[in-house]
# Entry
Amino acid sequence: MASVKVQVDRKPMDFAAARAPIWCPGCGDYGILEALRRALAEVGARNEDVVLVSGIGCSSQLPHFMKTYGVHGIHGRILPVATAIKISNPRLTVIGVGGDGDGYGIGLNHFLHAARRNVGVVYIVSNNQVYGLTTGQMSPTTLKGVKTKTTPYGSIDSPVNPLALALSAGATFVARGFSGDVAHLAQIVSEALRHRGFALVDVLSPCVTFNRINTYDWFRARVYKLESAGHDPADFEQAYRRALEWPTLDPYGKIPIGVFYRREDLPAYEEEVARLLGGRSPSEAPLELTREQLAELMSHFG
Amino acid sequence: MDVTIRISGAQGEGVESAGRLVALSLARLGYHVFAFRQYASIIKGNPAMFYQIRASDRKIYSHGNWNSYDVLVALNKNALAAYEGRAKYVIYDAADRQSPQRAGEVPVPLTEYALKAGNKIMRNTVAVGALMGLLGVDLSILAELLRREFGEKGERIAEQNIQAAEMGMRHAAKAAGSVWGLSRAGERRLLMSGAEALAVGSILAGMRFYAAYPMTPASPIMHFLAEAGPKFGVAVVQAEDEIAAMNMVVGASFAGVRAATGTSGGGFDLMHEGFGLAAMIETPAVVFLSQRGGPSTGLPTETEQADLLMSLAPSHGEYPHAVIAPYSIEDGLYAAAKAFNVAEKYQMPVVVLTDLYFNESLATVDDIDWGRFKIERGQLVTSPVVWEEYKRYKLTDDGVSPRTVPGIPGGMHVATSDEHDERGDVITDRHLPEVRRAMHDKRMRKLAKVAEEMEGPASFGSGEIALVAWGSTAMPVLDLLSHRRDLGAVVFRDLYPLNREAAAKALDGGRALIDVELNREGQLALYLKRELGVEFKRRVLKWWGEPFSVDELSELV
# Structure
């Protein structure tokens, strides 16, 4: 992150667009938006150097409420777009933001590959355990037995465990926050923004309209902070065990939030690409070839 | 001088490297060369794949004839049986046949010589040596190429191969003499595959990001870029699938870097949604769509031109894009360069439509016109703008709006796949038909302007009958014209949007039109009928995985 330019005295509202959010009152996405603005101010980001990439779903509307660059792309393809932006210009702060359906359903493939590449993208997943914008169908994180429009007799699918998946895929920063605790979430996002490589921030983010089970109260009764529990984020095995803590297995179980795992010693993907390109990114490579380069290019064909 | 050689053997038997060696040798001697490979989707096996190499002292566009050639090099009995009747001279392993059965047979102890040189694997080199003996090409050309091929590390292997080639050459020269007596025809010529032409054209056009998922016959584009690209600042990403590849292109391009992907029909199917995204958010993107036999997995290693209609309308909805189909390998250089300029000037996706025959064939290219690689970036904004006033999707007469990229102060906006307003703000949370209509019209307006940049079809010859072709089918058609004065040809390259006026003019003139395509339905004819009401007298079509050949076409028309 050394090449990213910072600006001091930034305020959260410096990142607010003219337009007000359009989410349902009480939606968890408000907490994510506020935490993100605070974190960007905290790390001293410049508006023009931030790119928010979203997909499709309620939470993917988020870039419209931010005074930054953004790609509000198609469903499930946040990470390929974000990956390419970061490779092309590593000076940019690239943040993916979308829902659990987008990232852990249709886009799960890309999630695992972004993690194993360790590309320098912060990926914030608004995990509400339901499809909101399409009016309440089962999502990949819907708990088994829960009734939705597509599971009227209770879901028979086991939910995915995004944190365990991220850890297995090689992610170097794995965290979970809660929309109901904005200060804590903002702290996690700040740390993710300072991380070298891929950072997952899964956010427990209640859908107040279509998910009457996983409510703010439901989460408040279960979450606990890893940093208060003596967790060591450098310990992979411990992180993995914590990632498996989830009420699915134990109805009265607790849900850890905070940073599960972090290591900073591995090169980010964009660094590896730049290394192959002789220490520059694609955006720094001149468009036109020199006479010598031209001769070298054509020497392949004699 | 016009000589055609077919080297045949099992896959894994060295046909491929022998073919390349022969093609390169003849290009180095200054001949115009074309080489085509027929093979199957198997790594080792398929007893009689072949490499057909043609060389001439005048310009050629294709592999020439299918049913008759000058020399057959048969590396095994199957190859010998399959093709010997069609060749004037046949080089084969003396161990495969007791005694010659007819004139022109040149048995060479391939295996014996290879073993003598050090390894049985060099049978193909012995055969190439024998072929060169027949052609009268000096050993030094081969020796130079073999040394380069194996490099310093493989010095011993290179010398063994040279020895193997020399034994083959001496044997053939003694048995048959130097039949062709080829001497230097001119300056050394550059030899490249169609895929390489696309890759080189892209690098020259300033492409600095390429993401793709392996798929025949597009993979060689990625192979070349992965090897040669980094020196020129080209990042190559092997994506997890074609969906990712297409979306990566959109991302890189959004960040201001010229970007492309390459695939074949099945991969392009997966890219359609991302292709539409590029059109909707008005971000440049180039897709090298290299056709093979479809549908589904189809004919993975055989050629076809059946994706024309798909390329005209790949994604859902209505949106602007362009389709360019290079008609010779050399033209691949220019077509690629043009695609990047059109994509960026009009902020839209562009398809460069080729096929297996184009991508995998090798051809010598004439003097390259470097002036055709001028980079035009259109409405790219490179200095700060006032955020409160900046409209990324400003309504303009030609439909093109000023485009900022991340890092430009004040240029912040959201590129939105939902319908949006001039600022890029999503409008789909309300019913705003007037905004939708204005934005849709704005995007579609770009097509009229692009059409002005599209070249009309090229006309060749003046015969009473005109063959109408597009893309790589033009290659055998143009060769046919050189000895059929009764024929003319109209070759389409910039397919969409159509330069209607130029197209109508080229097809007018009272000549009988014959549609020549590698598909079953006559897709170009359907397209031209729809666009211009053109009637074709006949259709000459083929859809079983082979390119047209000159002799075949001559009989058919």
Q: What stands out?
A: Chain B has 18 helices and 21 strands. Chain B has four domains: 2-176, 192-373, 379-453, 458-556. The two ends of chain B are 25 Å apart (CA to CA). Chain B has a mean pLDDT of 96.
